[in-house]
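MODEL INPUT / OUTPUT PAIR
PAIR INDEX: 1
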Amino acid sequence: MAPEVDVREEVIGIDLGTTNSCVAVVRNGTAEIIANDQGHRTTPSFVAFSAADSERLIGEAAKKQAALNPRRTIFDAKRLIGKKFNDPEVQRDLRYLPYLVVNKNGKPYVEIELAKSKGRREISAMILGKMKETAESYLGQPVSGAVVTVPAYFNDRQRQATKDAGRIANLNVLRIINEPTAAAIAYGLNSLHRKSKHTKSKILVYDLGGGTFDVSVLEVDGQDFRVLATGGDAHLGGGDFDQRLMEYFIRLIKRKFCKEDISEDKKALGRLRKECETAKRDLSNQSQVRVEIESLFQGVDLSETLTRAKFNELNLDLFKKTLEVVEATLKDAKLGKSEIEEVVLVGGSTRIPKLREMLKEMFDGKEPCKGVNPDEAVAYGAAVFGSKLTKLHAGVTLVDVTPLSLGIEDAYGLMKVIIPRNTPVPTKMSMEFSTNEDQQTSMSTKVFQGERPLTKDCIHLGKFVLSDITPAPRGVTIVEDTLEIDEDGILKVTSREKIPGAKSKSLTITSYKGNLTQNQIKRMIKEAKEMAEQDKIARACVDARIELESYIYDAKNAFLTGDGLEQVGDKRGKVEIICSMRAASGWLDANQGATREVYEKKLNELRGVWDPILITAKKI
């Protein structure tokens, strides 16, 4: 374990989720989930920008206006972090994202209309900054230290990118820990309150969130947590279930109404996504729901019944895929299903009844544990672990594992594993390599991560060049490569020639993708601070627009479907009211980038004309 960090302020725990994020802190020995400025204990992982990039919204406010501003509202950024643009999973997602993602030096960047492009680290940094702001507002003091969670199956590049995002948000990320491990801490401490003594138990954490899926098997003994094995899919979650529903309705619309592809209309796609997510959630408590969207696409009104059975049918292969991961992880842990005492469910997607039913059947009728809140457990555990890093609180012992094997490519393109998967971390292992040519004076070594025998099928992490080695016949000079993983799962590589008394020589990293330069970090931090000053203004502007839009909609409904027009004396007056309603809707569409003051002025203007009639008709 790492030595205790000398931090005397509160350390927060952040669950940086694909769909929602959550922040917690330990005060007076008790972990608390911190509600945001809307009173909600989780915050949507949404970021929105104005047309001129002058205003930014994060969280609830950004999600509310997503349907009106689809090309400048960013979500699911976690599915892009640390990945290459040409990654097949990234390419698959791009079809259903309403915003534009472009290729910049092999990395996916969000291209915002009429504004600067944003890297996926910057988007994640904005969400982390919002969590920091939420905690500071609650605690009444500045916060810098944080423990941030990531999916267990995140690779080294993705973990480093998450740390970079924390730095941009002006956070000192003390540790990166795996989400299911954090959830296990929450479960373990909760179970301690229910048990009279410490008992050793083996648990399985099934963590299915909005965009990632993890399984971890742990041994819990009081406040000691040892990860035995981990598995998962860093690109599987509730968002994929939403996508299946979207694909179903897109096919249905094309078959019943029109031949054109609705996926080309980003605004319609955003509205459909919102309704599909709502339907998915409602089907956890209802056997069927109505999916209704007025004038969705080319005048088509979508009005269809969606049953829970149909939802299960559309996603059954994905459900089964998660159970295959559970089987594989149990095998890695060398445990049978009967040896698992508790199955702990984490992540909002675990509320899906069919998934719970399949898990229960898999574990011979054992009911999944309901002792932790699936939306809050990860942040709770991260806060508890963060508190142990300070001088303020006693510690929790955590031994995690590396999710994927790490190794070196040999001369034949084979993966030479140095650190096997599920090795407890922190760890440090070495392997010796000899030269392949006579009189060789440098050695180039490529480092990979993965389980495939050929490096072309694994994840390339970096190229290491050791210079000035002793020239000698082939195979005589020996070089030792050492791979070291710290508590955050971040990889460090050193290389030295095996000569008695020789010191380690410098290692040049020529293609590592995770780190940002100091200038890039400084620029992003500066931009984040500048944007933060404008957040309150932007929020007030969006609220004013929403209020105006709601008033126009309610007034139109009252006039056209009720007795509102009957209060207008003559035919000419009625025509004028109808024209003014159309003009108001047109004005709103044409002034999406207006200021709060302009929206409020327009609202007062309309109220002056419409309210007297509506009040008479007793409609407001």
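PAIR INDEX: 2
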Amino acid sequence: MQRLVLFDLDNTLVDRDEAFRRWAAGFCEERGLPAGAFAWLVATDGGGFMPRDWFFGEVKGRFGLTASVDRLWGDYRQRMPELVSCRPGVLDMLVALRRRGWRMAIVTNGQADNQLGKIRRTGLDRHVDAWAVSGELGIRKPARELFEAAARGCGLDLDDGGWAVGDSPTLDVEGGRGAGLVTIWISRGQTWPAELSPPDQVCGAVEGVEDVLFGADSAGVERG
């Protein structure tokens, strides 16, 4: 199997939920929102999986805001890349993988300005070979085509295999499996949904992927 690994971005390589909480706290303060607004924003956000146009429509209605949904969403996309962070250990892992000859790309759903802003501000653009962003390409995970685009960006063919890494059981693990990749689920303390076929590997945090891939190198792992 070729040394190709395709990483999800939000809550895999970067801590998107912490960035959202920081955004929500600032949003509440700037607009003088009532007590309970922060908790409502976090709950309604759904970990980032709720459509953003729907989310900001709900925000506008809940708090009687005069700004348009497009304006609220645009301000959010501008602010989020400034708030997102990437742990030093994540960058260290990417450096180690590159030294071992791995090709790496990011596969992410989201608006191009928001996602590319996160990739560049955290320095991930200097540590991976390519990225495929749904907002740029008009393709969303779990579609195989987005994984194919990421592999092509690395100069590789997805048909020659590789690994998919992410926190979403459906978008990352099932999507990666459908693309013919070996899968690593980043559990973040969550329980795997019983109704889904399990991933090939599980790591509590993305830094654990380094040991999995180095172990696969040593064992010459092929997907069973």
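PAIR 2 NOTE: The two ends are 12 Å apart (CA to CA).
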